[in-house]
Amino acid sequence: MTLRAGPEYHNEERQSRKGERHMLSQKMQAAFNEQIRNEIASGYLYLAMSAYLESQNFGGAAHWMREQYKEELDHAAKLFKHVTDRSGRVVLEAIEKPPVEFGSLKEVFQAVLAHEQKVTGLINKLYETALAEKDYPAQIELQWFIKEQVEEEKTVEDILAQIEACDGKPHLLLMIDHHLGKRGQ
Ligand code: MG
Q1: 102: CA distance to ligand 1 center in Å?
Q2: pLDDT tens digits for 105-158?
């Protein structure tokens, strides 16, 4: 029995059975795998922020970050399903260690916004690849993510505006923290 080599073999084997309609190109498969990594890495970053916020006694914001972490894992799972539904092969890539310290509450959410803006760019790039590859199912799948990024950025911008309106006053920041603690309830 011959050993089956990695994802390329897997694709060739399935291609003959499934036909081209459902198949992911090697390029799309690699791009989706990269985005699965990015989503899990985002989750890992938010979990690190949650740990930091707990250490700073922002229990509500720490809870908000854990909800955000779970959402990112859901995004990764959605992409995972898309790849496997189309007989592609998910290959998990390495994730870097996230930072440990994040500064003030305002700086934490500034970092979240900057990160989400970066993710928007990555999703857009993935969509452009799907356009170039004429991968229509991927385009439809990714439209959900494009919409989701609009939401993500808006939500964080709103939180940042509220934090800025507090002007560093501790009792007002604690009210925001309390509010953030209600996410998902
Ligand atoms: Mg995401």
Answers
A1: 20
A2: 999 999 999 999 999 999 999 999 999 999 999 999 999 999 999 999 999 999
pLDDT at 147: 97
> What is the rounded distance in angstroms from the CA atom of residue 144 to the CA atom of residue 141?
6
CB atoms < 10 A from the CB of 22, how many?
14
Q: How far, in Å, from the CA of 87 to the mean position of ligand 1?
A: 23
Tell me how far the alpha carbon of residue 12 lies from the centroid of ligand 1, in angstroms: 30
Instruction: State the pLDDT at residue 6.
Output: 60
| Cα distance between residue 154 and residue 67, in whole Å | 16
Distance 163 CA to ligand 1 centre (A): 23
How remote is the CA of residue 69 from the centroid of ligand 1, in Å? 9
CA of 45 to the centre of ligand 1 (A): 11
| pLDDT > 90? residue 2 | no
Long-range contacts, 137-143 (Cβ 8 Å, 24+): 137/22, 137/82, 137/86, 138/24, 138/28, 138/32, 138/82, 141/78, 141/79, 141/82
Distance 115 CA to ligand 1 centre (A): 10
pLDDT above 70 covers a percentage of the chain that reads 89
Query: Taking all residues of the chain, what is their mean pLDDT, rounded to a whole number?
Result: 92
Q: Is 26 exposed, middle or buried (0-12, 13-18, 19+ CB in 10 A)?
A: middle
